[in-house]
Amino acid sequence: MLEKAKQALETEKVNLTTELEQAATARQDLERRRKQSEQQVQELTSRLAETDRAKTDFSNKAAKLQVSVAKNSKLLYQMLRLLPIQI
Fold it and tell me: What are the DSSP E strand ranges found in the chain?
């Protein structure tokens, strides 16, 4: 009877050890995935910031070009008014 209980405890010990090893392996895998995900988030955040800077630069350039076009259009209109009309 004592031998049977000892054998049952040994079996339980082996099972628990196996479960513990599996849990440790799963934890390591999850930790690896977490680090990969964090790295991807950092890369995407960096790319987003770069894209936002480029968007801001393009918007500023577009605004400057619009002002320039408006000034040049006004100047052209004024110059055309000064030209003699030929009939």
Answer: none
- Check pLDDT > 90 for residue 80: no
Looking at residue 44, its amino acid is L
Inter-CA distances, 82 with 5, 75, 78, 85, Å: 113, 11, 7, 9
Confirm whether 36 is domain-assigned. yes
**Domains contained in the chain, number:** 1
Tens digits of residue pLDDT in 4-54: 999 999 999 999 999 999 999 999 999 999 999 999 999 999 999 999 999
Name the residue range of residue 24's domain. 1-82
